[in-house]
Amino acid sequence: MASSSSYNPPCAACKFLRRKCIQSCVFAPYFPPEDPQKFMNVHKIFGASNVAKLLNDVSPHQRQDAVSSLAYEAEARVRDPVYGCVGVISFLQQEVDRLQKDLDAANAELIRHVCNGMPVLTSTQQVNPPQRAMDHFSASRNGGGGFYQPQNRMWNSQNGSNSRGGGGGSGGGGRWWW
Length: 178
Prior knowledge:
The chain is mostly helical. The chain has helices at 12-17, 36-46, 48-57, 63-79, 85-114, 131-142, and strands at residues 155-156, 161-162, 165-167. It is built from six helices and three strands.
């Protein structure tokens, strides 16, 4: 006699825990049988009971995000048991800081290159960019409304700062406050 019932393989969680996977299994939608390592890592770090409690406490539309977060943290903890995700975040923050310094250095170099032919100004002289640059800046910032006001921008070549504060910067370039 042939049976008409279809066979559904147990989810990765039920297979790992060696139990029958029922239709209302809380793990089945999030731990497919094709990816057993995902549940193994989560189980090793958090435990199946804690994960089941968490999934039952979270609203159904948030469960996928919760499982993704648990799986990411578990994988990070398996790779780095001491720091886990914090180690990854710290590394990425250091990378962002390094790239920001590189960007600041590139901007300072660009300003030095652009200002290479400009005359040295005293603290009482105004900085007046070429009219073409002013027209472009005004049009792009305020739809032609004249955002830039050169009468308020003065450059002090003695200490590398402008009248709005800020200054210094690497390479003695100072900062422009547009």
